[in-house]
Design a protein that fits this description.
Blueprint: E1 3-7, E2 10-12, E3 18-25, E4 34-39, E5 46-51, E6 58-60, E7 68-73, E8 78-83, E9 92-99, E10 117-118, E11 124-128
Parallel strand pairs: 2-11
Antiparallel strand pairs: 1-3, 3-8, 4-5, 4-9, 5-6, 7-8, 9-10, 9-11
Length: about 130
Amino acid sequence: QLQFVESGGGLVQPGGSLRLSCAASGFTLDYYAIGWFRQAPGKEREGISCISLTGANTHYADSVKDRFTVSRDNAKRIVYLQMNSLKPEDTAVYYCAVRQGTFKTMCPPADPREAEFDSWGQGTQVTVSP
């Protein structure tokens, strides 16, 4: 079964940094673009970033642009999300997933949509608070 295991979350003060990791379990990353999503309490899950198969193309939602950086190491089967200048509104459970369908190696031209991605992990909690 294809699944991700997310880690690296925690409690951090505003302005701080965290690096999330997303490790593939049971499959290789060699065929997929990977999306990062988050879900805040009481809100729907939103797509915030994507990295293409080769890493040559990335996408960021406006809410995280210039603060978050996505990267991947296909040999290690890990995708990373470096989060800097964290804000209280970044508090959420963070997930990664693989893109499905014909264009699965590429990122969509807009913010990732949950319906286009699969193989969700359990997520990792990020809390930004003084």
